[in-house]
Design a protein that fits this description.
Low-confidence stretches: 5-17
Oligomer: single chain
Strand order of the largest sheet: 4-5-6-9-8
Helix content: under 10%
């Protein structure tokens, strides 16, 4: 075995992203996971566990259902989150604001029955 080869040789070494501020943070490339910060907890969800998402017509309430959790996000201009989910580029959601939307609050609730509950 060639000792020069690193098992993650194709992974960019500078691929870590530090999220500053808040709101809905987009990635430039598709990501496998999204992180959500709620009061008292930080969550990470793989895109493969997302069942569906929707936002109201005003863009003030966003809902995301995963196999195990329901996530409610309240804020402003949350329409873009749907597009980012479709592209697997929604990377981080936390209280605050940026060009992709303003997040006023996040509520994560367990849903052990998934969409069949």
């Amino acid at each position: 075995m060639n000792e020069d080869r690193h098992p993650n040789a194709n992974v960019r070494q500078d691929s870590a992203v530090e999220v500053k501020g808040g709101g809905v943070t987009a990635s430039e490339v598709p990501v496998a996971f999204l992180t959500i910060e709620s009061p008292g907890r930080n969550w990470i969800f793989p895109y493969s566990r997302i069942l569906f998402a929707h936002t109201d017509t005003e863009g003030s309430r966003f809902f995301l259902r995963t196999i195990s959790h329901d996530i409610w996000i309240n804020g402003q201009n949350l329409h873009k989150a749907i597009y980012l989910i479709q592209q697997e580029k929604l990377m981080d959601v936390r209280k605050g604001s940026n060009e992709n939307g303003k997040v006023d609050s996040v509520e994560v609730m367990e849903n052990p029955g998934g969409m069949f509950a």
